[in-house]
Amino acid sequence: MKFQYTEKKVKLPANCIAYAEKKVSKLDRYFNSDVEAVITFSIEKKMNKAELTLHVASTYLRASEATSDMFASIDAVVTSMERQIRKYKTRLARRLRPDAFSQKEEPTSFVEEETEETEEGFNLVKTKKYPIELMTRDEAILQMNLLNHSFFAFRDENAGGAFSVVYRRNDGDYGLITDSEE
């Protein structure tokens, strides 16, 4: 497992980072390929927040917990992630492709960039670049739920690789935006 740490508004001692690495390493048993773990530590509203993002093959999993103690936040986020992995790994194995958690070649990696104000006057503050994967609509909805996002962009396997976006509607159902004609 490869680790990356980010500290926002906080400087943690080495023993706290070692503790997080030890706890998160236990999640490696769920995967049969290399896993990238991004752990973000921050303090928000007098709460110690730990956010864990795992990148396994082309799947991202994210969990976030905040408590009054950073060690407790680490324990809570690992427990939350473990619960999420068990829930979705079973669903992936049952409903989707059998290779959903195996390593694939990726042309680029996930990158976040801070940007300046654009010429039109809109304040664009963050840009994210990631490879748009070929997947089914069910896999895209599952990936969106794993990331806890309200939308997810992908290349639709059902529409010949057309660029598509699934999104969560206000009524709890899902919608699809695509550039192909069906």
* CATH homologous superfamily title of the largest domain: Ribosome hibernation promotion factor-like
Q: Report the CATH C-level class of the largest domain.
A: Alpha Beta
Mean pLDDT over the full residue set: 82
CATH architecture of the largest domain: 2-Layer Sandwich
DSSP summary, beta strand count: 10
Query: What is the first-to-last residue Cα distance?
Result: 42 Å
Q: Outline the low-pLDDT stretches.
A: 106-119
Concise synopsis of the structure shown:
The chain is of the alpha+beta class. The protein is 27% helix and 35% strand.
Describe the structure.
The chain has three helices and ten strands, in the order E-H-E-E-E-H-E-E-E-H-E-E-E. It has 182 residues and is an alpha+beta fold. It has two domains: 2-95, Double Stranded RNA Binding Domain (2-Layer Sandwich); 132-178, 2-Layer Sandwich (SHC Adaptor Protein), CATH 3.30.505.50. The chain has a four-stranded mixed beta sheet. The chain has a four-stranded mixed beta sheet with strand order 7-8-9-10, covered by helices on one side. Helix 1 (14-25) packs parallel to helix 2 (70-95). The model is unreliable at 106-119 (pLDDT under 50).
